[in-house]
Give the backbone structure.
Amino acid sequence: MTIPEFGVDTFGGVTKDAQGHPLPHPQVIRDLVEEAVTADQAGLDFFGVGEHHRADFAVSSPEMVLAAIASRTESIRLGSTVTVLSSDDPVRVYERFATLDALSHGRAEIVAGRGSFTESFPLFGYDLQDYEVLFEEKLELLSALLTEEPVTWSGSTRAPLSEQRVYPTTANGIRAWVGVGGSPESVVRTARYGFGLFLAIIGGPAERFAAYTDLFRRAEKEFGGSPQPIAVHSPGLVAESDEQARELVHAG
């Protein structure tokens, strides 16, 4: 029987001080590290950090923040939520997370996705017209790299690889997921490449995502892969009690 895991994640949104003024990015990042330490002390299983490249979010390099968290925590697993794979290089993604995995004694996780925003595309010189092919090719390559075996790969979005090893290697591999926002095609693709399914419930009734978990399991069987874990992301509010949380929500 699989034991359920529970964690929290943050996009590193800019918070405000007691006077309602936005805090500077450096303070937001330091506060985020302290939040992760508290989560570890509370016994949570996972802490995720998002990637954005805009003024209202402080974290553009989740791995750097997660490395700082790794040095301050003992057991909580550390992942990106998400790594915007379409505008990144899968080789560098693997290298960064393999390094994080070493620093954290095997606690690193990759959640690869397209992201909720597209500001990284022009920032790093990618064309939004290539939105689909960028993610498809880079996910395929990342899947191959995670085997930690020599990789031969070619595509239209980066230079080809021929029997290329990538380092550092890890002790036990890296748990990797694909963040899926509700597309059946994305669910099937996740199963095809052997990733865990990370359902991103941004809004609407959670029940509608049940069909995607069924589809994922059917696709895994069709592709002959071993069953991978399924996770669910959903917005939430943490307070001292359920009653206080409800009051805060209703107060707006």
